[in-house]
Design goal:
Elements lengths: L1 E8 L6 H10 L7 E8 L6 H11 L3 E5 L6 H11 L4 E4 L11 H9 L5 E5 L12 H18 L11 E4 H5 L10 H11 L4 E5 L15 H16 L11 H7 L2 H11 L6 E5 L7 H4 L5 E6 L2 H10 L6 E5 L15 E7 L8 H9 L2 E12 L7 H6 L7 H10 L2 E9 L4 H10 L7 H9 L1 H7 L9 E8 L11 H12 L3
Helix pairs in contact: 5-8, 7-8
Length: 493
Amino acid sequence: MKLSILMPVYNERTVVERSISQVVTAPLPENMDRELVVVDDCSTDGTLEILKRLAAAFPQIRLYQHEQNRGKGAAVRTAIEKATGDFALIQDADLEYDPAEYPRLLRPLLDGHADAVFGSRYLAGEQTRVLLFWHSVINKGLTLVSNMFCNLNLTDMETCYKVFRTDLLKSIPIRSDRFGFEPEIVMKSAKRKLRIYEVPISYHGRTYEEGKKINWKDGIKALAVIFRFWLIDDLYAAPYGRGVLNNLTGTPQYLSWLSGKLRPHLGDAVLEVGAGIGNVTGRLMGKRLLYMAAEKDPLYLHALRNRFLRTPNVVVQRLDPENPEELGGLERCFDTVLCLNVLEYLESPGPVLEALRATLQPGGRILVLAPQNPTLYGSLDRSLGHKRRYTAPDARRLLESCGFAVERVYNFNKVGTAPWWIYSKLSGSKKISKPLLKIFDKTVWLWSRLDALMPWNGLSIIVVGRNTGRVPDNSQAPVTACSREQTTPASSN
């Protein structure tokens, strides 16, 4: 296990050598290694020369340099990209925070309770230097505003000491180049529903005469950052390809419309394949005896487990539908399978549907949501990784060839067809604008009522199929047996 210590540095020649010496010798939990990722943000006072000498002396140091001054946020962003540890801790180079407290900061993460730990200067630390009254007022005021918009109860939003699971931190895009990093990462952590803990830390703050750089102007900018990232949902870094699910989180009326179409066909034991971050799960799991939210993506699984941690009828399971072995032990456990926006990503959807049919009880239903109309296939589909779009006859034949009797075929979201054609075929765009999605969502109440009257096919198709398989009555596993003996242990994977 390894800790990545991320240190942005700018014009700190008077303290950086002592600071780094403390960091590389600070105590760590047993069997934990460290790396110190130092990013010099184009220092002009000789700091870089000191850093180069230290990097040659300490093998734990990995030194990077910005060719121009870009700000603390940009330096932290570079350090995050270079981090290779299991956990990432942000450490300023100015000796205000004590590296001897690393074990305390890491404990909630190592115990499995937290995804992020913030060190608070306003909890009862061992020692805290008494500093400027108005500086503290501004800090506490910014924390209050941040808490109001994030719905958290942090005591110190602006603290430097923040520790994250590195995989989660790398998946969060950092847009702020300067001191806006702190409110941005807090807002995005809250929206991602990370489990955040606070621990008390010591604080040896500097005065402005001693070199403190942040001032009241940065406080004004922090308010703007809080408001900006409260308004927009920019929660997943591009390389992770998860923005589309985050966009859907901001369309609650659309999701409620879709859920209303699916709900009448659900039974008491539901398997949702490709559950994502739980956009549909949260709307359909109510009143079910068992709802298994299955996903193969580690970050999606993390979001699901956090969201449904205390929901006893929801089981979160790692499951790759293209690997039939992972469905072992789930035969005839469910009366409903949800396969929403899954088939279009698969090379061979037939074997996947056959494997899912084995999890259904005789007479159980599968509900498939897939993009419709191959003539709409364009840049949006390619950017999302879609391999195909379906026609209604194609979808019907596919399900029937896999042993399902098709009971119902719905056209869904006809109003979305024209915008999709404009963005995907006409303009060649790779994403739909968030303002348009919000306008669409606010008017779903109208489009949902007009949908049946529109004379063209929907953007998506919903197909309801019934499992026609027959097995002896005494071989059918009851829902309670599946939920207790087979699925529950798997949720800890």
